[in-house]
Amino acid sequence: EEVLRIVKPQHFLPVHGELLFLKEHELLGKSTGIRHTT
């Protein structure tokens, strides 16, 4: 989470892991203010 806030990416696309992990990564991206999460 801290890394995402420091780097401030415009897009966040998790592509590896089980559905539960992918959904958690999506929520993490949205909670850090990344607009384009999938």
Report on this model:
It comes from Nymphaea colorata. This is Zn-dependent metallo-hydrolase RNA specificity domain-containing protein. The chain has helices at residues 2-7, 19-31; strands at 11-12, 36-37. Strands 1-2 form a two-stranded parallel sheet. It is globular, with a radius of gyration of 9 Å. The mean pLDDT is 91. The chain contains two helices and two strands. The two termini are 16 Å apart. It is mainly alpha-helical. The protein has one domain (2-37).
Short précis:
It comes from Nymphaea colorata (pocket water lily). With 38 residues, this protein is mainly alpha-helical. It is built from 2 helices and 2 strands; from the N terminus they run αβαβ.
Task: Name the features.
RibonucZ/Hydroxyglut_hydro; two-stranded parallel ribbon; Zn-dependent metallo-hydrolase RNA specificity domain-containing protein; mainly alpha; 38 residues
Percent helix: 40-55%
As laid out across the biggest beta sheet, the strand order is 1-2
End-to-end CA span: 16 Å
Instruction: Please count the beta strands (DSSP E, at least 2 residues each).
Output: 2
